[in-house]
TrEMBL record:
Span list, region Disordered: 343-386
Binding of S-adenosyl-L-methionine, residues: C125, A126, A127, P128, G129, G130, K131, D149, D194
InterPro entries on file: Methyltr_RsmF_N, MeTrfase_RsmB-F_NOP2_cat, MeTrfase_RsmB-F_NOP2_dom, Nol1_Nop2_Fmu_2, Nop2p, RCMT, RsmF_methylt_CI, SAM-dependent_MTases_sf
UniProt protein name: Ribosomal RNA small subunit methyltransferase F
Keywords (A to Z) from UniProt: Cytoplasm, Methyltransferase, RNA-binding, S-adenosyl-L-methionine, Transferase
Basic residues bias: start-end ranges: 364-379
Sequence ranges assigned to domain SAM-dependent MTase RsmB/NOP-type in this UniProt record: 38-326
Pfam families hit by this protein: Methyltr_RsmB-F, Methyltr_RsmF_N, Methyltranf_PUA, RsmF_methylt_CI
Length: 532
């Protein structure tokens, strides 16, 4: 560590905790004058940001509602700087999924991926899910988002964020890139790789990352990044785009990885970034790859990458590269989509659940095979249960929603989901969420899921009730309290009685479910989500 190194005694207390090897390397890369400017960024406070969830609310409408003073982030139209001391996570609008709390620089990678409604997008290293929610907002409910993380623990936060932000067309996986490539070869036309890295750009935001830097070495990270990029090429459709991003400064994890990818994949090219104010180009002169000198034309392409420096922007350090496959889009992609649409939408489906793999069928000569009538009885019983679940969902949708959501209704772990993909595409994968969770059946009754509420618009429910922020109703609901609510406040379709499931909203935006009876709302807000 650098505490005892006299060369950096003029730097602030935070900088004194930075690894000495890191400081020496940054000084060599930047030069003395630029390095001093870089070091001065550690004297500045870190910047907090929120990004408006345009799946639920437009930027203009949010400006009118916002309880915070907003300052625009130059590289993200839906992003704003806010005062971190205001605690934006402690407001009902956050629990309604109207905005995501996100470091400003972290909003840049999705912006340069140029996502359009209808795209098929893979977020390969997605947890905790901020960039996935940004992708989903750009898809506007059209197309497919497959969001994945290799860590089972991290997929918990990922799945929750997908649900909180009302995303209907996402599948959450807990898989290796190789396993996804076996099921989705050359399928996605947009891929985001927010690669695991040494995290040098986040030292100001998270001092623990500086302390862990030597353990999460640059060399270890480059091996992972190299493997991920190689598999991503197998996942991308002809003519598609990959955005590779890191939150580190090291050329070995940035320009070197892009150079090596171009060397191994001659059908790809770097799409030069349109640099926003404060963004800097990549550095071909920092390449350390042993083949860089003999392939200058490939090395020169890394100048089209982008670097975000904390002393040049109001944000932390990031690296961005846009890689485009130079082939044309195949008609075969459209053929797959037609096959998907032709798949039966209301048939049950079984998937391999994360941490709960499917059991192998008994092999010949091993184990006892049940009599045929017992196997038939079990299968018949399972079919009845699946049909009960599907009938329960369809009855609920008919009685409580103005229109049933579109998609493939699939069964997963005793629950009903609406999936953007046909059942066969997920077979054999470790699936955390096969789609939008809509509910389950208990004792013959359908119970709507919390994600169903968050994925609806307020005007899609046949019964709804809006709670006041000023009078504390919204917070009391989020704490799980039972509320008094007059019949007159239950807005409902003509001829419908107030009793039953009610979509609870704040300023017209859904928070969850409640059950109205005799002037009271029984709170259905999940215990694990409650305001604390």
């Amino acid at each position: 560590m650098a505490q005892n190194n006299q060369k950096w005694m003029g730097c602030d207390a935070m900088a004194l905790q930075l690894p000495l090897e890191f400081l020496n390397r940054m000084n060599a890369l930047l030069g003395e004058e630029e390095f001093q400017r870089f070091m001065s960024s550690y004297d500045k406070p870190r910047f907090a940001g929120i990004r408006v969830n345009t799946l639920k609310i437009s930027v203009d409408d949010f400006r009118k509602l916002s309880p915070f003073e907003l300052r625009s982030i130059p590289w993200c139209e839906s992003g704003f700087y806010v005062d971190e001391g205001l605690k934006p996570g402690k407001h009902p609008y956050y629990h309604a999924g109207l905005y995501y709390i996100q470091e400003p620089s972290a909003m840049a990678p999705v912006e340069v991926l140029d996502i359009q409604p209808g795209d098929r997008v893979l977020d390969l290293c997605a947890a905790p899910g901020g960039k996935s929610t940004q992708i989903a907002a750009k898809l506007q409910g059209e197309g497919v988002l497959v969001t994945n993380d290799i860590s089972a623990d991290r997929t918990k936060a990922l799945a929750k964020n997908i649900e909180l932000y009302g995303i209907r067309n996402a599948v959450v996986l807990n898989e290796t890139p190789e396993a996804i490539a076996r099921s989705f070869p050359h399928y996605f036309n947009k891929i985001l790789i927010d690669a695991p890295c040494s995290g040098e750009g986040m030292f100001r935001k998270d001092e623990d990352m500086a302390r862990q830097w030597e353990r999460h070495s640059v060399q270890k990270c480059t091996i992972m990044q190299q493997d991920i990029l190689r598999v991503a090429a197998q996942l991308l459709a002809p003519g598609g785009m990959i955005v590779y991003s890191t939150c580190t400064f090291s050329p070995e994890e940035n320009e070197d990885r892009i150079f090596e990818f171009l060397l191994e994949n001659p059908d790809f090219e770097v799409v030069p970034l349109k640099l926003k104010p404060g963004f800097q180009p990549g550095h071909p002169d920092w390449l350390t790859h042993p083949l860089a000198a003999s392939n200058p034309e490939l090395g020169d392409q890394t100048a089209g990458c982008g670097r975000l420096w904390p002393h040049r922007i109001d944000g932390e350090g990031h690296f961005l590269a846009v890689l485009r496959h130079q082939g044309r889009h195949l008609i075969a992609e459209e053929m797959f989509l037609k096959q998907s649409e032709a798949a039966e939408p209301l048939r049950g489906s079984s998937f391999k659940q994360a941490k709960e793999p499917l059991k192998e069928a008994p092999r010949k000569g091993k184990g006892k095979e049940k009599p045929r009538h017992q196997r038939h009885s079990k299968s018949h019983s399972q079919d009845e249960h699946e049909q009960e679940l599907l009938n329960g969902w369809m009855d609920f949708a008919a009685n409580h929603l103005l229109e049933a959501p579109q998609g493939h209704a699939v069964l997963f772990g005793g629950h009903v989901y609406i999936s953007p993909l046909p059942k066969d595409k997920l077979k054999g994968l470790k699936v955390v969420r096969p789609g939008w969770y809509v509910g389950t059946v208990h004792h013959g009754r359908f119970h709507p899921g919390h994600p169903l509420a968050l994925g609806l618009r307020g005007d899609e429910a046949k019964r709804r009730a809006d709670l006041s922020i000023e009078q504390g109703e919204a917070v009391r609901y989020l704490k799980g309290e039972t509320l008094e609510l007059s019949e007159a406040r239950v807005v409902r379709s003509p001829g419908l009685l107030p009793k039953g499931y009610v979509l609870i909203t704040v300023s017209g935006y859904p928070l969850g479910w409640g059950k109205w009876q005799d002037g009271m709302i029984k709170n259905e807000y999940p215990a694990g989500w409650r305001w604390t």
